[in-house]
Amino acid sequence: MQHFIQPPETSSLAHQVRLALQEDVGSGDITAQLIPEDRYSQARVITRQEGVFCGGPWVREVFRQLDTRVQVSLLVKEGERLVAGQTLFRLQGPARALLTGERTALNFVQTLSATASHCRELADRVAHTRVKLLDTRKTLPGLRLAQKYAVTCGGCHNHRIGLFDAFLIKENHIAAAGSIQAAVEAARKLAPGKPVEVEVENLAELNQALKAGADRIMLDEFSLEQTREAVAITQGRAGLEASGSITRKNLVAVAETGVDFISLGTLTKDIQSLDLSMRLIG
User: Fold this and answer.
1) DSSP code of 32?
2) Is 241 assigned a catalytic role?
3) Would residue 138 show up in a list of annotated catalytic residues for this protein?
4) 37 belongs to the catalytic site
5) Considering only CA atoms, which of 129, 183, 124, 194 is closest in space to residue 155?
6) 260 is a catalytic site residue
7) Known catalytic residue: 61?
8) Which of 44, 64, 170, 269 is catalytic?
9) Angle CA 189–191–192, to nearest 5
10) CA–CA dist 20, 236 (Å, integer)
């Protein structure tokens, strides 16, 4: 359970870009071949709407893989708030490469900026509380690390990255293990040092998870009254995470109960791409 401050490592990012270019360019951009090979151009990319920027490293990697002669000048920083009409970056280089890479570069930026923008909106709503908003594993296939990075650019936080870096013991795991206590003990033996979180559905299970020594406890579909009671019972002995049926309408109320975390699949799956445009200017 981390809070990324850097984009994915170079090899992962390069792999994402390589796959994106392969599916778009295929055997070659036949339309770009209408342009003389030796023609150089400039281009600028603007946003038609406000939001939060994310995706600069992917833009650089797209054009690095297409043609190292392309110069990318980023005019905004990762996590920077944007206004409609603002220029995000400029490009200079072979016209063929600029046009071939346009859609792939913009796809990354519009998706990652949409994620960051949505996260910033929700983080701002609960900024008066101490709660941390967490993402989930509900990410676009192949873009898990990219979207989780975008989440942090928007001021929210990462839950576990996958099934490998932290335990999240749910109802079926508990049933198979025999009890919450048995499941937690097995987790401690299997991977000492890995965070252990237990999902509970009522206050009785909360007490069992506390007794078992869980690091974090997820309150699944708890009412506001139950959540407040859980906070009072726990008294800081474990991190408390609210989850389930949390929307814009009740987010602030949940945050104000005193829980430590709120996990939201919406941070990465219910997003609307930022409206971007690229124009050649020479």
Assistant:
1) G
2) no
3) yes
4) no
5) 124
6) no
7) no
8) 170
9) 75
10) 45
Q: Which amino acid is it at 171?
A: E
Q: Write out the two tokens for 103.
A: 């859609």
Residue showing tokens 């198979």: 176
Q: Where are the beta strands (DSSP E) in the chain?
A: 40-47, 51-52, 71-74, 81-82, 87-94, 132-134, 167-169, 196-200, 216-220, 239-243, 261-263, 276-280
pLDDT, one tens digit for every residue, the chain (282 residues):
444 556 777 788 999 999 999 999 999 999 999 999 999 999 999 999 999 999 999 999 999 999 999 999 999 999 999 999 999 999 999 999 999 999 999 999 999 999 999 999 999 999 999 999 999 999 999 999 999 999 999 999 999 999 999 999 999 999 999 999 999 999 999 999 999 999 999 999 999 999 999 999 999 999 999 999 999 999 999 999 999 999 999 999 999 999 999 999 999 999 999 999 999 987
